[in-house]
């Protein structure tokens, strides 16, 4: 079986866009929330773990002046994203860089992307980091934002109790049934994930823990614009 980087999930990259929507409730809605929370006048946006480029596309559609710098350690994901971005005519406004954003958090000088970003975004990626690395990454993001800049992250969160874990699991499975999804069939496309760089298999933290980390590193305002059981969009601003 093919070995995958954390976050690649499916053995065949071409399966990702369809299968992730079958596994995760309201995937598009979750990404739309991030794009709505970014000012439409944003010019410089950093994306951490761009995957197949779905969030990049939504941002480029909504923010006509935006240049997106997208980091991902998976060459196959970057190639797939580049193909979609180019097909939509946005190749002049999107730059994909093959790198581990955990490495960027620790060694920003090795990646010449600058600072003063209007926004930073991520989806389904940061939860692969240990909590101490999440904190370090949030600190690096804070330092890389322009005054008035914002950060938004969409990720699964750790249930606060075993009872809630059961509630979250049941909600996802009921949602799949309502959509007519055969989860066994979808899960059969999942590959074996290996640790890579600073990322490994799920290292979930509670929503409260995430918000405390953001406050600790200097985000003056933190917020949760969207939550659906065990999935959340959270972030904040620097002023």
Summed up, what is this model?
This protein is α/β, with parallel strands linked by helices and 239 residues long.
Overview features:
239 residues, two-stranded parallel ribbon, Rossmann fold
Topology:
Elements: E1 3-4, H1 16-23, H2 27-37, E2 44-48, H3 54-62, E3 67-72, H4 75-87, E4 94-98, H5 101-106, E5 117-123, H6 131-144, E6 145-156, H7 162-178, H8 183-187, E7 192-193, H9 207-216, E8 221-228, E9 231-237
Helix pairs in contact: 2-3
Characterise the protein shown here.
The chain has about 240 residues and is α/β, with parallel strands linked by helices. The protein has one domain: 3-Layer(aba) Sandwich (Rossmann fold). It contains nine helices and nine strands. Helix 2 packs across helix 3.
User: Which structural category do the helix and sheet elements fall into?
Assistant: alpha/beta
Radius of gyration, taken over Cα atoms and rounded to an integer in Å: 17 Å
Amino-to-carboxy terminus distance: 48 Å
Rounded mean pLDDT is 92
Helical amount among residues, as a percent range? 25-40%
Looking at CATH, the homologous superfamily is Vaccinia Virus protein VP39
Number of helices: 9
**Approximate shape:** globular
Task: Tell me about the largest β-sheet.
Answer: 7 strands, mixed
Strand order of the largest sheet: 4-3-2-5-6-9-8
Which spans have pLDDT < 50 for at least 5 consecutive residues? none
Annotation, overall tally of beta strands: 9
Q: Please tell me the CATH architecture by its name.
A: 3-Layer(aba) Sandwich
Order of helices and strands: EHHEHEHEHEHEHHEHEE
Indicate the proportion of strand residues: 15-25%
Q: Quickly count the domains.
A: 1
| CATH C-level class | Alpha Beta
